[in-house]
Structure formats: structure tokens, C-alpha cells
Amino acid sequence: MDRPEDAAAAFQAAWNAHDMAALGALIDKDATFVNRFGHYVRGVDEIVALHVPIHETIYRDSTLENELIDVDHIAEGAAVIHFWSRLSAGTAHPAGPHQVDTMILAVLTKKDGSWRIRALENVTLSNPRTGAAMLRDLGRP
């Protein structure tokens, strides 16, 4: 990635191609990752290993649609980004086709001329009173 702004689209492209090597190429070797269920892993190998089985099974026909919200350059070679992510699960998912919206926060660092994800956390949008998953209104924050 040439700029932090590229991360949302690059993550989307790797997911939609179900290309876990491409996903791994976006991630710093010592990165941390928290999925939407609160599962924490450290290191690119662990992050890829977390995603391989779901892309071979329940998410093999899923797609993501990411929308960058903002980029904050917090220091030379360091940035924080936020982006919306809509997961569209297909017929391979046990619950059948459905959508889930999440908010992703990622910290990116620049090394050797390219940007990599150093930390990423994914939070599912849900009703705080009931816990029921919610979809956001597209076009509105």
C-alpha cells in the first residue's frame, strides 16, 4: 500500500478474492488483530491462520464492501484509519445469506517505503439494549 488510504480497498480486494496470501501481504509481521467476536491474535502468520479456515468454509462465497471514513496521521510513518465494512455472507454460511456491518479501526505503519497494518480491531454494529445485529444506513455515518 502506498498510502494509509489504500488499506480499506486492499483489505476488501484480498477478502473478496479469498486470497489469504494477499491479506497477509497487507499486515506487519508483528501485527495484532481482534475479530468481530473479540478473538485476539498476534503476528501475520496467526492472523492469516485465523482467516484461512473460514475462507475455505463458511465465508468461501462471502464479499466485503468497505468504505473509508477517515485517516489520521499521528506521527511520521504512523496513521490511524476507520472504515465501515459490510460482510455479505453467501449460501456457504450455516445461517444462509445475510449481511453484517462492522466498524474497523486500524493502525498502519510505514516501513521500507510501504504501509502495513500494525493493529486492527473489528466491531459489529449491534443494538446496545438487545445485542441484536444492526445494519447501518448506507450513505450516513
UniProtKB/TrEMBL annotation:
Descriptive protein name: SgcJ/EcaC family oxidoreductase
A UniProt-annotated Pfam family: DUF4440
Residues spanning the membrane: none
Domain DUF4440: 8-117
SUPFAM superfamilies per record: NTF2-like (SSF54427)
Superkingdom of this protein's organism: Bacteria
